[in-house]
Amino acid sequence: MKYTRFNKALSLLLAGTLMAGITGCSDFLDEQDPSNLTPDSYYTIPDHAEAALAAVYADTRFIGNDGGIFSSTWQLLEAPTGTSTTETAQNSDLNNLYGLVYDGRTQHLINYWNGLYRVIANANLVLDKVPAITPMDEGQKKKVLGEAKFLRAWAYFYLVRLWGDVPLITMPQTAASEDFRPAPSSKETVYELILEDLKTAEAAGLPWTDVSGRASLAATKSLMAQVYLTMAGFPLSKGASHYQLAAEKSQEVINYSLANPLTLNLFPDYLSLHDEKFDNRLEHIFMVQYNVVVAGNPMNNMFPNFKPVTFAGPSGTGSTVPTTEFYESYEPGDLRAKNQEGFFYTSYYTNGSGAPFDLGAPYIFKHFNQTALGKEGVPGSRNNNLNVPLIRFAEVLLIYAEAQNEVGGPNALAYDGLKRIRDRAKLNTPAMGTYTKDTFREAVWRERWHELCYEQITWFDMLRLRKVYNELTNGFDEFVGHVNLSSNEPLQSKHLLMPYPLPEMQNNPNLQPQNPGY
């Protein structure tokens, strides 16, 4: 069961729309109305702790928020990569992202900032209020607090990579709080909190995997591996020590998989990646949870524009489509580029299940839920319950391969991880002895671009590596000066950070100076 239950009373509490209790001159009028909730009166039983935690998980769905016509918040992390373009061109903010001329007024950027800090605010409430709940099983309490810390770390990890120095808020705030308008903390300080939170989550008694979609030990260790890998690169440049830590954490997840291959592993095929019955299972280590009862899958902007590929017929979406150059950069025979079997499709069925027709160009198939939208001869259910992947086991294999290579060159486990990714794609992998440290490094980077595309990961690879895959040369360019083929515009040094959102700077005069170049 997906973790989507949400307590309506708590929703009111967390939204800050509470009313004060009624007072009067008689004693009985001084009694508190139980319907008038406050943070102090609400957190009294274990069910309240679980409902509050559910609210934090629900907040992660901000990535599907409205980004204007034909656009969604998640496109902030896709449009600047150069691997996609748009057919609609009717959203000025999205066009600015593609054209690398976005600024602090861009709606996607504002939505990301607000969404991440909402996750943090509600996680802080859980961390502040749940410890005092009595009676409550200590194991349950520890687990709830561990999950809240995981989610807070997850949110700060996005913030620090996107904006660098950001306000560090670790307690619930009101307008009367002393630090209600906090100044940015250093990147180093933010990363210290992220690692502290993840270490607490790691020791919280979480199960290795959790098919309900809640944070697990595998998710925690995988996120730690991501954090260490990022810290090893730019801008902190921690180097070998943190590549070693990234290798160690990812290897722990790989070792568990080797001992439990039916629980944690690669899917045998790519269709399983976007089959809703496999949500939160096997390869999917951590996902944003979706169910149409609460909120349906938000990736509709990856469907072909004005072409009847779903039960709904022609649509007005299609604002994220692959560039021809990126699609053609896959090796000959790569199953990931094969029509309707890999990550793309070039033909489909009228209204999802009717007569076949040619699309005329490649489109992104990676988030296409055939159960909901239809497939050959089988109409869709119309209920798009597909989750959005955040951490896959495939990425863990590539983290280990990259990190181990940086520490001591490719070893057997690193090579095996790379080969497993390529084996599934039906590609031959050169013998281990043919690689040098440098050629193995680029081989792993190349697989990250081709395996993890359109999952909001590529932009962060570009930032930490300060390298960008060149689809035409099959090599890697320096970040600054690389020309995105989606816009024919070069990346600049200012693009290494996002601008602070202008509305937030206006509300918080301590959020300054603006990041360079904006």
From TrEMBL:
Key words of the record: Cell outer membrane, Membrane, Signal
Domain of life according to the entry: Bacteria
Leader peptide range in chain numbering: 1-20
Residue spans crossing the bilayer: none
Domain RagB/SusD: 275-518
Residues of the SusD-like N-terminal domain: 27-229
Localisation per UniProt entry: Cell outer membrane
Gene3D superfamilies (alphabetical): 1.25.40.390
Family membership noted in the UniProt record: Belongs to the SusD family.
UniProt protein name: RagB/SusD family nutrient uptake outer membrane protein
Organism: Algoriphagus oliviformis
